[in-house]
Amino acid sequence: xAEDWSPEEVAATVADYFVMLEHQFRKQPFNKRERNRHLxxxxxxxxxxxxxxxHANISAILIEIGFPYVDGYKPRGxxxxxxxxxxxxxxxxxPDMVALAQAIVDAPVFDFPEPLRIGDIFVPxxxxxxxxxxxERRHPPLHILRNVNYLEREARNAxxxxxxxxxxxxxxxxxxxxxxxxxxxxxxEHVAETQGDGLGYDIVSYDESGRERLIEVxxxxxxxxxxxxxxxxxxxxSDTREEFHLYRVFKFRETPRIFSLPGSLRExxxxxxxxxxxxx
Length: 280
What we know:
By secondary structure, this protein is an alpha+beta fold. It has helices at residues 7-25, 32-40, 48-64, 81-93, 95-106, 118-121, 150-155, 158-178, 182-185, 191-194, 232-240, 265-268; strands at 203-206, 212-219, 244-250, 257-262.
């Protein structure tokens, strides 16, 4: 049975993770394998896989508290409470990291990046750790960052959301145009702007057969495992309209990619209630 990680090992691993996250925030290159190798020189005989798993644990913790994570370290559960506590301590002692995350999620977007080939934009949805759960929820809540959920804050960035919708409009137009369905391409409608944003979807596009594709766009500057926030209306439409597709646009500020979740969000996602309506 593997020996539990000591407080010193956990602190060193958390600090190393946040160095990588800061590099990611600042768009500076770093080598995960080399950092793993260097970290193991100060740990107690830990394997490369064990270090990588611990970094993936930190990703799960950060997602849980609403903070960006290092892309490439897919969130994994079953982490020590000590690890979660150390993440909180690190962020409490490094307000510069919190300020950097806030600046990124609040930054306005004036245009979408240079478009890629259609064949490079669409990717498969990321696989979850196991059905119906992204990470463990058996740990006590971590009250840090003054209860600010920076991932939710990014989701409220109106300029980012609009830029993501316009990016998808361009992608859909080119997709249909390249398939030879130019008349369908010209019929695409940005209904969030022409009819308002209460329909439960943002764009009406089309399949090759001419069938409508009702697209709700969710955009993030971060990795594919970043949670998104869906309204009750969007979930309801996904339940009742087979034509519904959620387009998750990620890595938007660098090399945007899209994965699509067709049909009911209840089937493709784990839905957690994040707010309640109270009536008297």
